[in-house]
Amino acid sequence: MRKTLFVFLLACSCLAALEKGQPQQIPKTPPPIGKVDQDLAQAQTDFDIARKMFNPWYAGPLLTPSAHNVPKGEFVVQPYLFVTNTFALFNENRRSVNISDIWTVNPLVLFQMGWLSWLDFTVTVQGVYNNQSGQDTFYWGDTEFEWGFQLMEETPYKPAVRMTLTETVPTGRYEKLNPRKNGIDATGEGTYLTNFSLNVSKVFWWVTTHPFAWRLSMNYGIPTTVQVQGFNAYGGGFRTRGTVRPGNLIQIDTSIELSFTQKWVLAIDLAYTYQNHSTFAGHKGRTANGQTASVGLPSNDQLSCAPAIEYNPSDRMGFLAGVWFTVTGRNSSDFISGVLSMYYNW
């Protein structure tokens, strides 16, 4: 049966070539049955692989930003909800030391618009609710304005490359804090932070039948000095008055999104941050027990991980749910956070 089918297909191709005026050399003897079986098996394998392939949809991982601008004239809105339990602090020896649990609810909304073919703009606003040992507070967090510059568009063999310039405006509370609340009423850092970021991303098709997207984001932030009074985000006490110079910071994020189907995706982020020490000049003030207050922060770093699941009902909408937690750190917080997000593009 296979031999008959092969001869029939060969005859049809010869007739088609003759109709086009291209003489076809007909072999004097048919190929061996083994060769026919091998060609048919390879054709079936190629067909099965092609049938499994699909055009993936991605809403993006939880942390690592995209290397693609929003197209000109289009808009994106993406709300987030972070519910975080900070249960310990890493000391200078990277040992996690327990503290009274701090519960934080952080709603955040990102709104992005495409201005030009190579330029887009993003604004991010947020609120912060903190609770610890019966004390609680709610206030605005700091606000971000970001300009994205598309340096390279993604092709089958080239990644997308995007540079961003982000300015953080200190709309959160950072000074004149309530001494009875032990610092949980601080919702911002009081500095105008200028951040430069280089983002790279690529979708890989040819490794497996399930496409996956890779992202990398490298950031360098330069904060301005902060005038502080009283208890503040950097320490302080009664009659504290002076200037804090926050340290510059480096952040590197990377992520992978693995497509199970066109709609369902598994994502994971790794994020590393480092900030230089923050110094203080001025009058340090006194604590409640009369000792000299401490103002300023030592250098710190932190490595965290954020696995998540994505559901994308279309190429313009996606839902994300995941967990973000610390792996290790130094002079930084030890936390676990549940995260929900939705992405919509129009």
Please tell me about this protein's structure.
The chain is mainly beta. It has two domains: 2-50, no CATH class; 53-345, Beta Barrel (Porin). Helices cover 11% and strands 52% of the residues. The protein contains two helices and 16 strands. The protein has helices at 2-19, 33-52; strands spanning 75-90, 96-116, 119-132, 135-140, 143-152, 160-169, 193-204, 212-223, 226-229, 241-245, 249-259, 264-275, 279-283, 300-314, 317-330, 332-345. It has a twelve-stranded antiparallel β-barrel. A three-stranded antiparallel β-sheet has the order 9-10-13, with no helix packed on it. Strand 11 and strand 12 form a beta hairpin. The longest helix has 20 residues, at 33-52. The two termini are 54 Å apart. The model is unreliable at 1-12 and 15-21 (pLDDT under 50).
Descriptors for this entry?
twelve-stranded antiparallel β-barrel, mainly beta, disordered N terminus, Porin
Shape descriptor reads elongated
CATH class call of the largest domain: Mainly Beta
Roughly how many Å apart are the termini? 54 Å
Number of helices: 2
At the fourth level of CATH, the homologous superfamily of the largest domain is: monomeric porin ompg
Sum this structure up briefly.
With 346 residues, the chain is mostly beta strands. Helix content is 11%, strand content 52%.
SSE inventory with pairings:
Elements: H1 2-19, H2 33-52, E1 75-90, E2 96-116, E3 119-132, E4 135-140, E5 143-152, E6 160-169, E7 193-204, E8 212-223, E9 226-229, E10 241-245, E11 249-259, E12 264-275, E13 279-283, E14 300-314, E15 317-330, E16 332-345
Antiparallel strand pairs: 1-2, 1-16, 2-3, 3-4, 3-5, 5-6, 6-7, 7-8, 8-11, 9-10, 10-13, 11-12, 12-14, 14-15, 15-16
